[in-house]
Amino acid sequence: YLAVLIGALINNQWLVALKSMFFYGIELNTLWPMGGVWWSLVVEIQFYLLLPLLVWLADRPRWRWLLLPLLIAAVLTYLRIRSAGSQEFSSMRGNLMGRWPVFLLGAALAWNQIRHGETLKLLVTRTPWLGTTLLITSVSALVLLCDYRVRNFGWLAHVFFFDYYLFDGIAWAVFMFALLNFKPLGRRLLVNSFMDRLGVWSYSIYLL
Length: 208
Description:
By secondary structure, the protein is mostly helical. It has helices at about 1-10, 15-20, 35-60, 65-80, 85-90, 95-120, 125, 130-155, 160-180, 185-190, 195-205. It is globular, with a radius of gyration of 20 Å.
């Protein structure tokens, strides 16, 4: 909220600041430079509000069947948003309905670690090359995606971020899967106590 107030002072847009306090109508250019990071909190708040409901449904066999139609509706909505030409749907790209697939990737990765993490780690001794292969593949995919956007869109590459962010998310999920379960070359450069602490610090101060 301090960032919102600073943005309001810089831009003298107090009505916009009031909306931002309730995570409403925030875009990248809202109360610049605050909106550059504050917009993502809209998605996070929506996710944290929805997650308890999904867990509640999953824990109750009587209501668990509702998860399937909800998933189908979410998929259809996401596909509509991706192909949207109308302002009605394209404006939803910045909320949870336009971003939920990457949250599902993260949830699936966490579930996999809880259910199969120990079993997967046994593969390290059997296939020591698998982790390095997955890591190289994911990094190569990220580099190719970045190169494609820069070559085709130049400095406007960020404008077309939504069209490719799911591919980025899949590549990062594979990257994390390799680091968590295997011992690829260079793993100690990223998985160590210093990087663990740095991750905590960066998450704490990224709004600044």
